[in-house]
Amino acid sequence: MIPRYQKILFVILLIASLAMGVVLWQLRQRAHRRLLAGQASAPTQAPEVAPAEQATLVAANDAENALIPQIRSLPLPADPGARARALLGRLLDLYAAPDAVHPVGGGATSVAQVFLLPAGKSSPDPNAQVAVVNLTGTFAASHPSGIETETLTVLSICGTLRANLPNVTQVRFLVDGQPRPTLAGHADLTRTYLTAEAVPTEGNKP
């Protein structure tokens, strides 16, 4: 014969088990409703990409020792700093192409950041800006050495910024976030470049 206290204990355990089952079922239902709500609120369309705009890439040409403008339709973000980086990335993609007339490896990833700062007292124009272009060390290390090829790269960057961001009147360069004496042994990266020096004209001798 089962003692009375064991019967009572059995009933208590049975009631507790049933209660836990009900709680677990409610938690499961609640989690399911949250999942459905999350799916309903998720975007049904892909994020919008930047619209394509007409842009001018001032590209270097080694054969002519010239800066030659190329008109392209490119997706460009609205933020000026991001726009500058996208433009320079596309320019360096041209140089990394197999048929490049100014072959330099690295492509768009060679531009780490572009910061746009007020020119301040260094310019009479209150809207004038200084672009600080931060290149990667890999790009600098792999860049072909030579005064003409290095200068063409630097001036093409300045010219592309000037053509698309008219307020940028000066350009400074960093490599991996630090000052660097030269790009690849010749082009001076310690100075501030004026974008007016990089007017694209065929036959231009930098």
Low-confidence stretches: none
Our Rg estimate from Cα atoms comes to 31 Å
Order of helices and strands: HEEHEEHHEE
| Mean pLDDT figure | 87
Shape: elongated
Rounded to the nearest angstrom, the distance between the terminal CA atoms is 108 Å
- The number of helical runs is 4
Strand content: 15-25%
**What class, by secondary structure content?**
alpha+beta
- What is the number of independent domains? 2
Q: Describe the biggest sheet?
A: 4 strands, mixed
User: Could you tell me the number of beta strands?
Assistant: 6
Strand order of the largest sheet: 3-4-5-6
The percent of residues in helical segments reads 25-40%
Structural features:
single chain; alpha+beta; 2 domains; two-stranded antiparallel sheet; 38% helix
Structural overview:
The protein contains 4 helices and 6 strands, in the order αββαββααββ. It has 206 residues and is an alpha+beta fold. It folds into 2 domains: 42 residues; 147 residues, no CATH class. Helix 2 runs antiparallel to helix 4. The longest helix is centred in the first third of the chain and has 38 residues. The model has no long low-confidence stretch (mean pLDDT 87).
What is the fold's blueprint, element by element?
Blueprint: H1 4-41, E1 52-61, E2 66-75, H2 80-96, E3 111-118, E4 129-135, H3 137-142, H4 147-164, E5 168-175, E6 193-194
Parallel strand pairs: 4-5
Antiparallel strand pairs: 1-2, 3-4, 5-6
Helix pairs in contact: 2-4
